[in-house]
């Protein structure tokens, strides 16, 4: 009967803990301690809670800005097309 | 008038009066209420024991702040289990086969858990949208995937209950129709179909209870993440 290669109990609702445990046990990749993170990695990383929050907010911000830029661009294009058809 | 297979799922009306109101309020009238007596009767004692055990089991993984949701979750469980079980009686209408009802239960409760999380611990709630230890190139994609999965939760809750109950009722109707039609033609086959119908009914009783439990359990899990 094949068993899971990951030893130890992993919380059922945590995908993140599963990724961390798999990386540690199967690939030997240890998660960096919070003090080791420097520069922009200190604020944007997937290890600390604040880092993850900042990544989420940055991603949402980029999406909202892209959507706003696209809407404004399409509105300008419509405006230019309307004014060129009336002249 | 010949009934089609899906007529059992149509919301019933009598002289223009929607009977779904009676179907929705019936469970409330069926449950015995606690009395002022020192010792209650057996039904009340059993009901109280079941509710206590279920509440303990459900609230075990929740923190103290989540215990405020005990009344809501347990009463929802009792309500759903009664609606589902009553619907297994012949010629009854099951309100939980209506997607509108299930979404009306799922969406506000899910939204309440999300808003609770955002209000009380916004960093934690936002941090949940990115699994810990995600490789850097995958971060934006995973955030979008987790956001989509967050918004799909109420839909999944409602559709799961609707689909399970509708499919079960439809199977029961098909099997019982087959049994009745085959009885004068091929009695031996009708007996096997009848046995299948019996087993299916037992399965549907289990599904009725399990689906109500799963609905409430998933809500408590979503609450666990946010409270």
Task: Give a verbal description of the structure.
- The complex is a heterodimer of chains A (87) and B (227).
- Chain A has two helices and no strands.
- Chain A has 87 residues and is mainly alpha-helical.
- With 227 residues, chain B is mainly α.
- Chains A and B meet through helix 1 and helix 2 of A and helix 5, helix 6 and helix 7 of B.
Summarize it:
The complex is a heterodimer of chains A (87) and B (227). With 87 residues, chain A is mainly α.
- Kindly state the percentage of residues in helix of chain A: 55-70%
Oligomer: heterodimer
> What gap, in angstroms, lies between the N and C termini of chain A?
78 Å
Task: Report strand % of chain A.
Answer: under 5%
Q: Stretches of chain A where pLDDT falls below 50 for ≥5 residues?
A: none
Shape of chain A: elongated
One letter per element, helices H and strands E, the order of chain A comes to: HH
Helix content of chain B: over 70%
The ordered H/E elements of chain B are EEHHHHHHH
Total strands of chain B: the figure is 2
The biggest beta sheet of chain A, please?
A: none
Give the class of chain A from helix and strand content and strand pairing. Answer: mainly alpha
Radius of gyration of chain A: 23 Å
Number of H- or I-type helical stretches of chain A? 2
- Structural class designation of chain B: mainly alpha
User: Could you tell me the number of beta strands of chain A?
Assistant: 0
Q: Which ranges of chain B are low-confidence, i.e. pLDDT below 50, for 5 or more consecutive residues?
A: none
* Helical run tally of chain B: 7
What is the strand content of chain B? under 5%
Q: Overall mean pLDDT score of chain B? A: 93
Main sheet strand line-up of chain B: 1-2
């Amino acid at each position: 009967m094949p068993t899971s290669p990951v030893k130890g109990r992993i919380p059922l609702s945590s995908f993140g803990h599963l990724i961390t445990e798999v990386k540690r046990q199967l690939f030997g990749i240890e998660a960096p301690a919070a003090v080791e993170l420097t520069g922009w990695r200190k604020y944007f990383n997937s290890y600390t809670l604040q880092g993850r929050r900042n990544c989420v907010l940055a991603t949402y911000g980029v999406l909202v800005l892209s959507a706003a830029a696209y809407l404004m661009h399409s509105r300008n294009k419509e405006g230019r097309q309307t004014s060129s058809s009336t002249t | 008038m010949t009934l089609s297979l899906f007529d059992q799922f149509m919301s019933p009306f009598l002289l223009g009066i929607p009977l779904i109101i009676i179907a929705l309020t019936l469970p409330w009238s069926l449950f015995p209420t606690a009395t002022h007596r020192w010792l209650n009767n057996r039904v009340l004692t059993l009901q109280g024991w079941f509710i206590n055990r279920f509440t303990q089991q459900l609230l075990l993984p929740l923190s103290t702040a989540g215990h405020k949701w005990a009344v809501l979750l347990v009463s929802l469980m009792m309500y759903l289990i009664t609606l589902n079980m009553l619907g297994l009686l012949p010629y009854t209408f099951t309100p939980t086969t209506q997607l509108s009802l299930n979404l009306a239960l799922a969406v506000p409760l899910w939204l309440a858990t999300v808003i609770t999380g955002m209000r009380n611990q916004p960093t934690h709630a936002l941090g949940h949208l990115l699994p810990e230890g995600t490789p850097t190139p995958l971060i934006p994609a995973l955030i979008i995937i987790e956001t989509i999965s967050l918004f799909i939760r109420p839909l999944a809750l409602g559709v799961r209950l609707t689909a399970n109950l509708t499919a079960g009722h439809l199977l029961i109707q098909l099997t019982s129709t087959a049994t009745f039609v085959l009885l004068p033609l091929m009695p031996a086959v009708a007996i096997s179909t009848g046995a299948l119908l019996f087993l299916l009914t037992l399965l549907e009783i289990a599904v009725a209870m399990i689906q109500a439990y799963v609905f409430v359990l998933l809500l408590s899990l979503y609450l666990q993440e946010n409270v």
